[in-house]
Design goal:
- Two copies of one chain form a homodimer.
- Chain A is α/β, with parallel strands linked by helices.
- In chain A, 37% of the residues lie in helices and 26% in strands.
- The first copy, chain A, contains nine helices and twelve strands.
- In chain A, strand 10 and strand 11 (210-216) form a beta hairpin.
- The longest helix of chain A is centred in the N-terminal third of the chain and has 14 residues, at 48-61.
- Strand 2 of chain A pairs antiparallel with strand 2 (37-44) of chain B.
């Protein structure tokens, strides 16, 4: 079963250049490892309409959606409200979560802290990973926090549920530039139209000039495509081949 | 004059986790420095429809659009064709560019290399920065390459044309967590509704727990908001204040 995914990163701090987003590249690598086909990543503002519209669109376009950021106790944490709006649901306090927060903070409980018990009505709560705090799931949307350490721990605690057939990857490093080898790549994708063939020039690397990636969910297909490409590339062009 | 911007990053290699995108965070920092308000970043596949649809949408939504990636000589470099489709234009060979490529490669010129002379009809070519190769501009869309070193050099060579009023930024580091200070932040944004106020908890930093950012294009406004916030935060809560 092939599953597609989209990631919505929510946070003014990324768009204003204060923080570099590392969550989407972490999720991209992990999803790939699980055989999930990531189709789009969007970084958007802490803006209710933007969040609601984007999450709705992703919900309709991809099998799995992950959001990152905007789930804390402060004024700019409006992801929950935005997602509720995307699904036309109300925001409600989850009674269990509220009780847990009251037990934890005791006399120090306040409105900001209780805001952490708010969920879109009908959300599923998944416990596991860093913090006692659960991951929220609404339809096909998984709501992850923005802090990288917590996001990573939370994702790793749920990733097995996303496992699909793996991608098979072969890598070829060449001594010749793209302008020289393009015709051989074109020939290969003409004969193997389902092959995912990437071509990535590297500047200033003494070992190679272009890294080629060949991928497919069919091991036999990628092996045949690789054999073809290696056969037609000029003598001495290939530095080395890797299997990942 | 306030200008908005969007960035479209084009490349399967990023979505499949092979390469981490650093171009969008570079552009985010640079645009912020120039006073430009970046509203959205999308990472999309090397797919004609995706490129055409996304570039069209960004073109209609933001004052400035930057694309990154997909402009080389190989089969997966289809950004030019996608952008042409976004504007309903044909792809044509630019005669000057074609001549330059023929002069440079001489007897080694081939179709793949001449592909680099293709532009959406009517594109403006801007020379400057790394490589003799120009940056393309179609309407409000600037077409940048995916290789970070070249993208950076190309952007720096054109950035002055984007200069707008700068943002004024003040940073406050606190010893207390978000749950404790949220009410003071809420009070500040209630009194200063135009303030851009960000709150970023840091895990495991011995010096501070939350970094607060206060921003505005009005220096006087951000100074007044900062004075208010510093007045209402509890004694001993502030580690330090920075002006950037």
């Amino acid at each position: 079963m092939d599953r597609t995914a989209g990631i919505v990163v929510i946070g003014n701090e990324i768009l204003s250049g204060k923080v570099s987003d590392t969550n989407s590249s972490f999720l991209a690598r992990e999803l790939r490892r699980m055989g999930v086909d990531l189709r789009r990543v969007c970084v958007i503002r802490d803006d209710l309409d933007d969040i609601a519209r984007t999450v709705r669109q992703f919900h309709e376009s991809y099998d799995l959606v992950f959001t990152s950021g905007g789930v804390g106790p402060t004024h700019d944490d409006i992801t929950i409200e935005g997602i509720a709006r995307a699904f036309g649901r109300r925001v409600v306090r989850d009674p269990d979560l509220e009780q847990k927060l009251r037990d934890f903070y005791k006399e120090k409980v306040n409105d900001a802290r209780l805001k952490m018990s708010e969920v879109p009505e009908g959300a599923e709560l998944i416990y596991g990973g860093a913090l006692a705090f659960p991951t929220m799931k609404i339809e096909n949307v998984y709501v992850l926090p923005g802090i990288p350490e917590i996001l990573q721990s939370k994702f790793l605690s749920i990733r097995e549920r996303f496992a699909a057939d793996p991608f098979h990857l072969r890598i070829v490093y060449t001594r010749e530039g793209e302008g020289m080898i393009a015709e051989f790549l074109n020939d290969t994708v003409r004969l193997f139209p389902e092959l995912m063939l990437g071509s990535y020039p590297k500047i200033g690397d003494p070992e190679y000039v272009v890294k080629l990636t060949l991928e497919s969910k069919s091991l036999e297909y990628v092996e045949r495509a690789l054999a073809h490409l290696l056969r037609i590339l000029p003598d001495g062009c290939v530095v080395k081949t890797e299997i990942l």
